[in-house]
């Protein structure tokens, strides 16, 4: 099975909670994860030509890169339950979707806090992290 990779900000509390949220709703383990700050994350950013300082979740799926609201909506498309329905928001113009995304991204540390170091996965989920 082909798996997709989600790159996330490893020190962001919102991002870490989002990873846990995705894992709970991804029973087929379609997604693997790497923090943007990790060696794997840095390597993948370089491979796909992403900026050093990226303020977005990144989805790498079938050698395509999705960022901001596109990444979030493509992730939702693979989650169990009603979350798949959020993909319909792709009908909204990207400047609206990404505008809202950027407001949250800019304020995520202030609103949700941040960690001193990246999250370490527990033994049961270690295979999901690169």
TrEMBL record:
InterPro entries: DCC1-like, DCC_oxidoreductase. Pfam families: DCC1-like. It comes from the Bacteria. This is Thiol-disulfide oxidoreductase DCC family protein. The lineage of its organism: Bacteria, Bacillati, Bacillota, Bacilli, Bacillales.
